[in-house]
Design a protein that fits this description.
Elements lengths: L2 E5 L2 E3 L5 E8 L7 E7 L6 E6 L6 E3 L7 E6 L4 E6 L8 E9 L2 E4 L3 E5 L2
């Protein structure tokens, strides 16, 4: 049974930091490219960042560059998203996504709220 379980979301003040985690099970994690997406109320889901299966290559949406860092630990079947200098517009549900060829799996999401 494939599972992606995100955690680490919560309420944080503007300028603060959060670290999201996504633990995978039920598939060969180290062979999958992983991504973080987010969806704000009333908006479409958007790509935040992606990382190659081995972890050597990452890419970020322009608005997150320099503030967010994605990493993975294949020994722990886990990906991370370190988010710094958070802004109110970063408020959204954050999802991790695993992809390999035609296969794709979504987590259930974790809520991030940036507010004073």
């Amino acid at each position: 049974q494939v599972q992606l379980v995100e955690s680490g979301g919560g309420l944080v003040q503007p300028g603060g930091s959060l670290r999201l985690s996504c633990v995978a099970s039920g598939f060969t994690f180290s062979t999958y490219r992983m991504s973080w997406y987010r969806q704000a109320p009333g908006k479409e889901r958007e790509l935040v960042a992606g990382i190659s299966s081995g972890g050597s290559t990452t890419n970020y949406t322009d608005s997150m560059k320099g503030r967010f860092t994605m990493s993975r630990d294949n020994a722990k079947n886990t990906v991370y998203l370190q988010m710094n200098s958070l802004k109110p517009e970063d408020t959204a549900v954050y999802y991790c996504y695993a992809a390999r060829y035609a296969s794709g799996y979504w987590g259930q999401g974790t809520q991030v709220t940036v507010s004073s």
